[in-house]
Amino acid sequence: MASKFVPYSPDVEVVDPHFDKHAQTVIGKTQRFITGSVESEGTGQAVRDAHAKGYGLVRGEVEILDRLPAEYAQGIYATPGRHDALIRFSNGSPHAGADARLGKATGLALKIFDIDGQTLLEDEPGSRTFDYTNINAPVFFCNTVEHYLFIQELFLAAPEYFAQGRPGQHRFYRDFVTGKGTLGEDEWAWDEFLAFLVVAQRPLVNLLLSTYWSMGAVRHGDYIAKVRFAPDPACAQAVVQRTIDPSSAEDVFRPALAAELRDRPYTFDIQVQLCADLERMPVNDLTVEWPEKLSPFVTVAKLRLPQQDITSGDNLTKMDALSFTPWRVTAAHAPLGELMRARKEVYRQSSILRHQLNNQERREPPSADEVLS
């Protein structure tokens, strides 16, 4: 019987003929920001151009489940087993500083060790590591590299906009929708702006209570998918410090995360949602949430965080020396869509420059033990 899911084909992607030119412009802007961030962000270090502030490096274990349905047992999920892992929790902002200034977008980046197969990064095909870089919203506020050119500028300048109160906030919104005056009225970025509001209105909760999505679509072997990490309901119910008040201290997310992990273990379900309809579950439009009534999320693995202490002085230093990218995956899990495609070289060049400026060795670790020892 034929599968109800859409089979993967390279034809599902649409690539702008000006993609390479726009991507190089984004890389140039990113490099200039990272170089200037050594002084501008007040940390004395170069920071990432997104997820600049990390909240903790956490040891984990990924258990790929046995006896999955064939459509879900694809790629790395075709082989049951346990793998060591590292997790970085972070804020999505390109800026460091007090949590109250950074917005509500947060991220969970996952690095899984001892994965067979070459990665899609040509300079490290044999790393045997596999990354996810997920955010706490089912949609993203940008679809094309051309749009990202002005959206990137807006987010880098966001503190200046919002420091001016409501007038500055209104200018930010206007410049977002109109592309800083570059878009014709029929091309205004309404869908992207509404997706931005979805992200901006996420509740302020303990990082362990958020669900984290893969932002864009990815290949899932013979199929197309989105991936999310959802809190295990029993673990979520046990979280003590549930809400976050950013006005109470400069740093609020990290202490709340550390307190929970010090007292108890935690589990996320790694879940896959297969594409069943390219019209209603588009690959090239990240502003559209895929309806679960068309295709539910199915748990394919468990991400377990053991009870641990992440408050050591070097925890954030070790976290910051790591590199995460959605392209450190095998071909069976390739990112799909224009913006996901752009992240490959933007992330790689960003990582290279940041490690150079911070005098950090840039290489993939062979194990979680080496990083945390």
From TrEMBL:
InterPro entries reported in the protein's UniProt record: Catalase_sf
UniProt superkingdom: Bacteria
Coiled-coil annotated spans: none
UniProt-recorded Gene Ontology molecular function terms: heme binding
Name of the protein in its database record: Catalase
Organism classification: Bacteria, Bacillati, Actinomycetota, Actinomycetes, Micromonosporales
